[in-house]
């Protein structure tokens, strides 16, 4: 089974001023929000006898929001609200566009802001507080500063993946840590993605900052000296360069869930995740300030926390739900979350992200 590329490009503009929100949108963002799509159960009108309300809820998301249409139809049938969707881009482009259009919001509710950009969105005032009646599982642990501007919906870990078969065939031990990548035995074996263009790449950069603190630049210099390859996006790294898919590098940046999709005929995974290298990503939903339909927006946030949606997240979005629902057997066996993932305070990310990216570009890549 081929994994769907998710959030592969997050900052299409050049690094110089790439996060300056006063600048014009890049060519890929000339039409903020893109063309809206409407989801309504076929043959039904919104606000029918089963519905509780009427009107439209405009959902703005990143470009990898791919729940089953049946779930959206269920929302309309239950609430009476039709749904319109727009996707300005990945998580970074999403937040930038929402800030740029703050005075004329792109929609009523947003899904897909992650913890790398959450503080930026909150500080910009684009969100209205909303506290669902009950947060499932350990969702409350992922609230930003304990506030109600953003509601946690799902989470996942970005980690290095290794090709078990390649290491077995070459009679080599697999790496286990960041430091192992600097070993001469692994020279030329790793492929990463550009943190200025790739959501996993940004997560890996943040993981190294979390792990090495002020010495992270030196670590990246050492990576490059050991012939680490850096490509633009996740699909390039995973499907072109990773030996598990016919490439030449048996260590590739991906997700902790990826090994659940590389099973052999016996049900064993041919790849694995290095859980000590993981960075925890959390995705949120929130009501947009100035929403035309705030009640509908709140209903959609509740819907994302519902048992049906939480139960579908793993196989639709390839993320872990925040609710304690049954997971696919392959995930239980081969796609564990890291017990101690690398994390950074969203406020620290917001305060330093521009500088970190410019430092990576100027001092690491040169």
Mean pLDDT: 86
Distance between the termini: 38 Å
| Topology, number of strands | 11
Question: Residue share in helices?
Answer: 25-40%
**DSSP helical segment count:** 11
The CATH homologous superfamily of the largest domain corresponds to: Periplasmic binding protein-like II
Largest sheet properties: 11 strands, mixed
CATH class of the largest domain: Alpha Beta
Q: What would you call the structural class?
A: alpha/beta
Which strand-content bin applies to the residues? 15-25%
Q: How many separate domains?
A: 2
Q: Can you lay out the helices and strands and say which pair or pack?
A:
Blueprint: E1 37-39, E2 56-62, H1 69-79, E3 82-89, H2 91-100, E4 109-114, H3 118-123, E5 127-128, E6 151-163, H4 164-169, E7 190-193, H5 199-212, H6 216-225, E8 229-231, H7 234-241, E9 251-255, E10 271-288, H8 294-304, H9 307-317, E11 320-321, H10 329-334, H11 346-365
Parallel strand pairs: 2-3, 2-4, 7-8, 7-9
Antiparallel strand pairs: 1-3, 4-10, 5-10, 6-9, 6-10, 6-11
Kindly describe this structure:
The chain folds into 2 domains: 27-156 and 282-334, D-Maltodextrin-Binding Protein, domain 2 (3-Layer(aba) Sandwich); 157-280 and 339-365, 3-Layer(aba) Sandwich (D-Maltodextrin-Binding Protein, domain 2). 31% of the residues lie in helices and 19% in strands. The protein is built from 11 helices and 11 strands. Strand 2, helix 1 (69-79) and strand 3 (82-89) form a beta-alpha-beta unit.
């Amino acid at each position: 089974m081929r994994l769907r590329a998710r959030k592969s490009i997050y900052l299409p503009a050049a690094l110089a001023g790439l996060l300056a929100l006063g600048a014009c949108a890049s060519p890929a963002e000339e039409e903020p929000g893109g063309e809206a799509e409407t989801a309504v159960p076929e043959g039904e009108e919104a606000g029918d006898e089963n519905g509780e309300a009427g009107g439209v809820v405009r959902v703005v998301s990143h470009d990898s929001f791919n729940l089953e249409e049946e779930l959206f139809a269920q929302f309309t049938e239950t609430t009476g609200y039709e749904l319109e969707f727009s996707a300005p881009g990945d998580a970074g482009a999403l937040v930038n566009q929402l800030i740029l259009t703050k005075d004329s919001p792109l929609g009523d509710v947003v899904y897909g802001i992650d913890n790398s950009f959450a503080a930026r969105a909150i500080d910009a005032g684009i969100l209205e507080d909303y506290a669902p009646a009950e947060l499932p599982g350990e969702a409350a642990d992922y609230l930003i500063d304990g506030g109600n501007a953003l509601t946690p919906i799902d989470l996942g870990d970005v980690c290095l993946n290794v090709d078990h078969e390649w290491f077995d065939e070459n009679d080599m031990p697999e790496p286990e840590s960041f430091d192992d990548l600097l070993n001469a035995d692994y020279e030329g074996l790793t492929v990463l993605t550009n943190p200025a263009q790739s959501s996993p790449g940004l997560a890996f950069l943040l993981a190294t900052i979390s792990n090495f603190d002020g010495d992270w630049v030196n670590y990246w210099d050492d990576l490059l000296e050991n012939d680490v390859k850096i490509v633009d996006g996740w699909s390039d790294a995973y499907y072109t360069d990773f030996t598990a898919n016919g490439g030449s590098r048996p260590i590739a940046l991906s997700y902790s869930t990826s090994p659940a999709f590389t099973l052999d005929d016996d049900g064993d995974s041919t790849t694995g995740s290095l859980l000590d290298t993981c960075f925890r990503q959390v995705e949120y939903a929130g009501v947009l300030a100035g929403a035309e339909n705030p009640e509908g927006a709140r209903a959609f946030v509740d819907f994302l926390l519902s048992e049906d949606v939480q139960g579908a997240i793993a196989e639709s979005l390839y993320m872990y739900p925040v609710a304690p629902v049954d997971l696919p057997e392959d995930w239980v066996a081969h796609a564990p979350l890291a017990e101690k993932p690398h994390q950074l305070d969203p406020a620290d990310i917001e305060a330093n992200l521009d500088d970190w990216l410019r430092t990576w570009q100027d001092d690491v890549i040169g």
